[in-house]
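Hey L., structure's done. Input below.
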Amino acid sequence: MNITVIIGPQKCGKTLFARMISSGRKNACFINKMPGIRLKDPFLFSHCTHDTDLVVFDDLHIGLLADVLDYVRPGLLKVDARGKKSFLISPDIIIIIDADSENLDLVEFIKARQCNLISFQGAKFPLPKKVVDFICSE
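Output:
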């Protein structure tokens, strides 16, 4: 299981970049805009399937990064869905955070936790609207 943290200012293309990565995967699951993510929620990963190979935590609050890393670090995520038998998956993880890449404490924390780090300073790639609409509609 690879864990990658993407940091940068709002609206700089972090989520679009993650969607581009996920388009090459068998089955990606996005957990979106969770200011109060509840890691104890047994149905947190209920949208995942047996072949989910990527889970993206989009727009995770910076204060929850350590908790999420502790939760996913063991390598296996338990998937519970109502009325179905539980199962385990071992997907790669992408965590997207609105944060200043100049925050050296954050950068060092991410590196110390042995995560990959992708840092955006601003918009990386102006894409035609047609391409953005296609990627975001997936």
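The longest strand covers residues 92-98. The mean pLDDT is 85.

-- N.
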